[in-house]
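Researcher: Please predict.
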Amino acid sequence: MHGARYAAALQLEALQAVLARTYLHVPFYRKWFDGGRIDPDEVRTIADLGRLPFTTRADLQANYPYGLFAVPLHEVVRIHASTCMSVVVGYTATTSRPGRT
């Protein structure tokens, strides 16, 4: 497989995994998907990314502090919070490996 096609296939696989996890574990996004805008299983190309929602500041504030986490709090090993924007980012052991941000 050529490098660009291989990279695109990996990106699509990662996107599909994120969508599946988000649908299963984040009620805010499950409600959005179930509202008929797009089914996560309909994302079959990277071009479908444009059909997905942007998360707005209002969405972040409405789900503050942990409503958009896709993992249980006991799996979160580090938290970054921005009080001026009402945003909390949680990191798991997987996302907190040395060399990753």
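Model: The chain has a mean pLDDT of 85.
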